[in-house]
């Protein structure tokens, strides 16, 4: 009876791990994180499958399966470390990107919004590190805080986009107003080129905002 009980507990833990990785994979957007999570999921499923085989195997086959299970556990541990490493790098890159925008921005409203976004991004990165290092008993509480922080970051990013979109529109209107008044052909040609560039910036910003994280790199390039 004790063995059956242990088997059920172990099976439940394995399934919980697989389900957790599947949930993260469904929410992931960055291609490197998606790839790392897919590798982690495959490793977690491999561990679960081998553990099930071990429970059901005759004594003569247990040693061979145990060896495979040990290797699978090591692979899962390595895959988990990879996911954490990739995630930390993505968080760091996001923070660096916001800092770069903040260094260039001149509009006070956008600057204030970017500062809020930067603070939210730092909070997400901090909580994610805490979650990785936390003992199982504390993970649920940190996960709840992390989800709230991620939601806040999404709101702050949306606010920055909204302000940027409004500023882009105002710039286009201003160039059009100048273009309507100017008579010099050379100045008019320069303003037309400026208008095309401003429209392109506005359009690309919309695409960048709408695109998944995996598509953002190609748009930036």
Question: How would you describe what is shown here?
Answer:
The protein is mostly helical and 221 residues long. 92% of the residues lie in helices and 0% in strands. It has 2 domains: 1-104, no CATH class; 108-123 and 154-221. The chain contains 7 helices and no strands. Helix 6 (185-210) packs antiparallel against helix 7 (213-220). The model is unreliable at 212-221 (pLDDT under 50).
Note the main attributes of this structure:
221 residues; mainly alpha; single chain; 2 domains; elongated
Report a brief summary of the structure.
With 221 residues, the chain is mainly α. The chain has seven helices and no strands. It has two domains: 1-104, no CATH class; 108-123 and 154-221.
Topology at a glance:
Blueprint: H1 2-27, H2 31-56, H3 59-104, H4 108-133, H5 136-181, H6 185-210, H7 213-220
Classify the beta-strand content into a percent band. Answer: under 5%
Order of helices and strands: HHHHHHH
Number of helices in the DSSP assignment? 7
Number of discrete domains: 2
User: How would you characterize the largest beta sheet?
Assistant: none
Rg, Å, rounded: 25 Å
> In terms of structural class, how would the helical and strand content be classed?
mainly alpha
The helicity comes to: over 70%
What are the segments in which pLDDT stays under 50 over at least 5 consecutive residues? 212-221
Task: Tell me the span between the first and last alpha carbons.
Answer: 61 Å
What is the approximate shape?
A: elongated
Mean pLDDT: 90
């Amino acid at each position: 009876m004790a063995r059956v009980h242990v088997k059920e507990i172990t099976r439940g833990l394995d399934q919980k791990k697989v389900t957790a990785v599947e949930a993260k994979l469904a929410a992931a957007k960055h291609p490197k994180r998606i790839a790392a999570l897919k590798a982690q999921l495959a490793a977690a499923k491999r561990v679960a499958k081998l553990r099930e085989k071990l429970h059901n195997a005759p004594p003569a086959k247990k040693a061979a399966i145990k060896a495979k299970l040990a290797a699978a556990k090591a692979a899962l541990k390595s895959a988990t470390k990879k996911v954490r490493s990739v995630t930390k790098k993505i968080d760091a890159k996001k923070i660096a990107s916001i800092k770069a925008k903040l260094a260039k921005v001149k509009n006070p409203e956008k600057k204030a919004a970017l500062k809020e976004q930067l603070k939210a991004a730092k909070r997400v990165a901090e909580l994610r590190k805490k979650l990785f290092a936390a003992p199982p008993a504390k993970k649920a509480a940190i996960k709840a805080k992390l989800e709230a922080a991620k939601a806040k970051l999404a709101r702050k990013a949306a606010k920055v986009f909204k302000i940027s979109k409004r500023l882009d529109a105002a710039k286009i209107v201003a160039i059009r107003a100048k273009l309507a008044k100017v008579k010099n052909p050379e100045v008019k040609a320069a303003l037309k080129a400026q208008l095309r560039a401003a429209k392109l910036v506005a359009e690309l910003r919309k695409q960048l905002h709408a695109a998944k994280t995996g598509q953002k790199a190609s748009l930036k390039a």
